[in-house]
Write a structure and sequence with these properties.
By secondary structure, this protein is α/β, with parallel strands linked by helices. It has six helices and nine strands. Helix 1 packs across helix 3. The protein starts with a helix and ends in a 17-residue tail after the last strand.
Length: 217
């Protein structure tokens, strides 16, 4: 298998058609080797348009969702980023390639350990990994210029947007199946936020995600 040709096919046939046109993002997908972060038993699926199982009931985002989320965040080299849900560490690597520092949190210790090993092997020194529940954010290191939630949330906790610095962006997938909407929330001024619905998709909810109130009759 010509792995670079397969990588090119992924970018040209899956990612570009999903409105990912930012050349810096596309170039980064050639640089950070996705196959190095996929669980070994699924290495042959690294470039497929699918979510790859990571264990513990969790999954890796599809390549097109990773690329689109990265493009929407519009990261700068001075940005401090919070990632909730480290997973494989691949998206952490993409974030760290564009930002000053990434704080990544996962409640599954095995993911944190494995991701740390892979990220160190690839020379990333601007990522702090922690084991913990970040579903309501990670205020101790805030405020952040960007926050990304790698699992969906049925409802948005107020605490998340409040951890954004002025101009900060929060990428989050909101709602419940079958209707979930990738949403970008921007802090336009202290305690003032703009919400933009980007596209519809479906991903597994974060562990311990807050639930909407249910009315019983």
């Amino acid at each position: 298998m010509d792995i670079e040709q397969v990588r090119t096919n992924m970018i040209e046939q899956q990612i570009r058609p999903w409105e990912v046109l930012d050349q810096d993002v596309l170039d980064l997908l050639f640089k950070v080797k996705r196959e190095d972060f996929v669980p070994p038993q699924y290495s042959s699926l690294a470039f497929f348009d699918m979510e790859i199982p990571l264990g513990h009931g969790e999954q890796m985002w599809s390549p097109k969702l990773e690329a689109r989320a990265l493009q929407e965040l519009q990261l700068k080299k001075t940005d401090k980023v919070l990632e909730v849900g480290t997973g494989s560490g691949y998206f952490s690597a993409l974030l760290a390639s564009q930002a000053a520092h990434v704080h990544s949190v996962d409640c599954i210790a095995e993911f944190v350990t494995d991701a740390g090993r892979k990220l160190a092997a690839h020379g990333f020194s601007n990522i702090s990994l922690e084991t913990g529940d970040g579903v309501l954010g990670w205020p101790g290191q805030g405020p952040y210029d960007a926050i990304v939630m790698t699992g969906s949330l049925p409802v948005l906790p107020d605490s998340l947007a409040k951890q954004l610095a002025p101009g900060g962006r929060l990428f989050v997938i909101l709602g419940e199946a079958p209707v979930m909407k990738a949403t970008l929330i921007t802090c336009v001024a202290p305690n003032s936020f703009r919400r933009t619905v980007l596209f519809e998709t479906q991903v597994k909810a974060l562990q311990h995600a807050p639930q909407p109130e249910r009315f019983e009759f």
